[in-house]
From TrEMBL, chains A, B:
It is a multi-pass membrane protein. Residues 156-217, 220-276 form the CBS domain. Its main location: membrane. Keywords: CBS domain, Cell membrane, Magnesium, Membrane, Metal-binding, Transmembrane, Transmembrane helix, Transport. The chain crosses the membrane at residues 304-324, 330-357, 378-398, 404-430, 442-465. It comes from Rhodobaculum claviforme. One of its GO terms (molecular function) is metal ion binding. Gene3D superfamilies: CBS-domain, MgtE N-terminal domain-like, SLC41 divalent cation transporters, integral membrane domain. Acts as a magnesium transporter. Pfam families: CBS, MgtE, MgtE_N. This is Magnesium transporter MgtE.
């Protein structure tokens, strides 16, 4: 692939695998053209490109050229670009705009992205902005912004398409056409009664293949899948994935339609959820922003809690060693195998925990499968332990003689079995107690396996070596 | 919430949070009604329900009632249900059906799911099935089944909707209506020339709001985002997420349209990818099937490789300890802090690695951000190390006196800093070498941190205690 040398040459290339270099190149070109006063070339280029790419280029630019480039776009595109920017960049854009300009752009934004942006503004900026918005926009903003982070209400959007049950299919098609510009999606329409209660959903596909005289109520799905605005976000993501939905309707406690969650927003929620689970499984606290934007203090706080807790956990391992000081002093060769044995229990345990946490998260395994899987895990752990014991037996003879080899091999089998059972059981126990199984992985398993490993190793050593 | 007592009472309930009990209840009811010969009630119930749910209930039933229940559904629903079943269950269904019945159902399946099912059949079953399929279906199957696992071609489907550039918008709408029953989606249509080269995409939304006399070529997006059939699956998932697409067109090397990847298939790919990354980061090899269906041998193989490798890795830690036997024998109290210090380096390192691997995977951080993040990491690690040193200093004085306390505190700061730098750097190094950063986390970081931790601890001890 040859690299483009001017913006006019630049086009989407599925065979390029270095997005970053392209991004950098385009950003530099935009800055150069703007500094030369050639705004027309930049405008022509930007309007022909994907909004997500335009946002990525603006992220690379300094504030002044970024604002200049963005203002070359039509209002609706500006609104979309802002939706793609990182929160930190959105705040810069909002600060650069006068309240009138900001209000105009926000009116054109999709309702959920507008509410997200609004929530980030400080109270003064919020108050300053409100008078420039329409009554309906103000109310919509206040309503969406009121939902707690992590709930469906906080990710849903209110710009959905609705139909009335008594419409004919041709009236319905006309109604969707009229809503097509503003609605987040028109591929699924929501049928509401006079009190805005959700009574059905209808896909545009089913509407298109219906006969022109049929009524919406006859062809709609009258028992739609929906979710409550107060439910957890992951519930919406789970339903969209399970039922392969384009969008999921959201109702309040009285079954009134209050919003929808789209599949692409659900993908973002699922990604956040995975990140959260990965952090939980590895001694990291929640981090409110992206790692790149996080401050030193935020990262320190997210990391110190578990690290200090594990310091105290490891004190128990130390106490275990101290309890066997005499045995160790008499057989210093035992120390050679100490890191190996305690690490092996932790490693086998972490494997089991990782498998079980992931299987529980994807729904592949359910809490009631525990019994059936336990027997299998014992067999696997025995096989793993015996293989590893064979591997260390040779080293045991060489470093400490046949007696040490027996101790180390025996301890290996016992410790791997114990580690695997802890790693497998903890996620199930957490699930049964209605806590997140992800919190059971990594550190907790390793710490438990470490302490028990030390005690088992030296107990076996004492028994075998001192008879 | 009150539980339903008959199938007729059963309906979707957004406020129930125990899917499993509902699933179990419905499966038992279906089995009971079938054993009483009341097939009509079962049929009425099943056709009114979501396909994904029907599949979940069939999974709970024994083979005979499951087959009986499935055959109560219309052909098209049967085809869809099979697409939702786990691969192991699909094989049971295929084995239960005669080749004629199987061919009929497979003709009704979506093309990608049909190809997936076909690939799982053994060679004899494949040969037996082919004559019962149409010529076009045979060719489609062979073509889709030929793509290597992990490529876009292996997840794409060939039942997409196409339009010709010279059509008017009303002709285009008619054409989509005609393709609506068979196409995987009609919300995005693909415009191809006479040689099937992809020359544009058009959303149904844009088609609906266009004027009736406009031509497709005037309103289509003539520079569509697309992907090659030979590219990696994750590339398709990444593009769909980045550009918020409903479906992504797939072209061969000559830019001819050969398939599409839909957003819901991309979600499945993204989930698999996350699972793969999590496994890589925790000493697990690839597991071809679900954990629940995996055999003991499969799980043993996926786990033993790294465990034995780590045995040899930990031998180095043991050798490190052996090298300091004299120092240890003279100050046995040092052993008390050994598990603590080596674990702390590993824990801090794993945190850094987890943060960086995830940030690189989501695109939040790019390989060239390394320099900027390194300085921040040093400051955070120093802050973490100092806090942890303060926590152990007290215990150091109590267990071993002031000299040991100095050794342990000093070692803690050095080891945490070293662990954090290893954990942060490895993912970046892997990314630079074009290897998957996920492989750099957990075990590798911990092993490196362990060996270096042992050496640093006892080196500091020797210097401080023997002057």
């Amino acid at each position: 692939m040859t690299r483009p040398t001017t913006l006019a040459d630049f086009r989407y290339d599925p065979d390029s695998d270095d997005d970053f270099i392209d991004t950098k190149f385009v950003a530099i070109e935009i800055a150069r053209l703007l500094s030369e006063g050639d705004t027309q070339s930049v405008a022509d280029f930007l309007v022909s490109q994907e909004i997500a790419d335009v946002a990525a280029w603006l992220e690379e630019l300094d504030t002044a050229p970024a604002m200049q480039a963005m203002r070359l776009l039509p209002l609706h595109d500006q609104a979309e670009v802002i939706g793609y920017l990182r929160p930190a960049s959105q705040m810069i854009v909002a600060a650069q705009m006068g309240r009138r300009e900001l209000a105009r752009v926000m009116s054109a934004m999709s309702h959920d992205e507008r509410a997200d942006l609004f929530k980030q503004l400080d109270a003064d900026a919020q108050e300053a902005l409100l008078p420039s918005l329409s009554q309906a926009e103000r109310e919509d903003l206040r309503r969406l912004a009121a939902f707690e982070e992590g709930t469906v209400g906080a990710v849903m959007t209110s710009d959905y398409a609705t139909l009335r049950p008594e419409m004919t299919t041709s009236e319905a098609l006309e109604a969707l056409r009229a809503q097509a510009v503003d609605a987040e999606t028109i591929y699924t329409a929501y049928i509401v009664d006079a009190g805005r209660a959700l009574i059905g959903v209808l896909s545009l596909r089913d509407l298109l293949i219906a006969r022109p005289r049929q009524k919406v109520v006859e062809i709609m799905d009258g028992e739609p899948i929906y979710v409550r605005a107060e439910a957890e976000q992951e519930e919406a993501a789970r339903l969209i994935a399970r039922y392969d939905l384009i969008a999921l309707p959201v109702c309040d406690a009285d079954d009134r339609l209050v919003g929808i969650v789209t599949a692409d927003d659900a993908m973002d929620v699922a990604e956040e959820e995975v990140t959260e689970d990965i952090y939980k499984g590895s001694t990291l606290g929640p981090i409110e922003t992206s790692v790149k934007d996080a401050t030193i203090v935020m990262l320190y706080k997210a990391r110190i809690y578990w690290l200090v807790l594990l310091v105290f956990g490891n004190i128990f391992s130390g106490a275990g060693i101290a309890a066997f000081e005499e045995t160790i002093a008499a057989h210093l060769a035992l120390l050679f195998f100490l890191p190996l044995l305690i690490a092996s229990g932790g490693n086998a345990g972490t494997q089991s925990a990782t498998l079980m946490v992931r299987a529980l998260a994807t729904g592949d395994v359910r809490p009631m499968d525990f019994g059936r899987l336990l027997g299998r895990e014992v067999l696997i752990a025995l096989a793993l332990g015996l293989t590893m014991a064979a591997a260390v037996a040779v080293i045991g003879v060489w470093r400490g003689g046949p007696e040490i080899a027996v101790v180390v091999s025996l301890a290996m089998v016992v410790i791997v079995l114990m580690g695997a059972l802890i790693g497998m059981s903890l996620p199930f126990i957490f699930a049964r107690l209605d806590r997140d199984p992800a919190a059971a992985s990594g550190p907790l398993v390793t710490s438990l396996a470490d302490v028990l490993g030390v005690v088992m190793y030296f107990s076996i050593a004492r028994v075998v070596l001192e008879i």
